[in-house]
Amino acid sequence: MSTSSTGAAAAPVTGNAVAIKNFAFSPATLQVKAGTTVTWTNQDTDAHTVTSAASGGPLHSAALATHAAYSYTFTKPGTYAYICTIHPFMTATVEVTR
Prior knowledge:
Blueprint: E1 13-14, E2 17-21, E3 24-26, E4 29-33, E5 37-42, E6 51-52, E7 69-73, E8 78-83, E9 91-97
């Protein structure tokens, strides 16, 4: 008999940093409190952006070269989905709580 794996999706991670590496945002779901400044750092050799998935969203980084960083302070609770506009298959979410 085999044991089953949990099969659960990755749980949200708390903190204030997101790494961009291997063409992915890590963690894919970050949970922070309102007022937290989150910093994304590009660890890939290709450029990436941090851009809100929905039009009018608050995230609008320039193309980040290797080791470049972008920061944003989330002031309101909500779920903020974002993508890399250069590589739109790269998606992630920041969940902001009170």
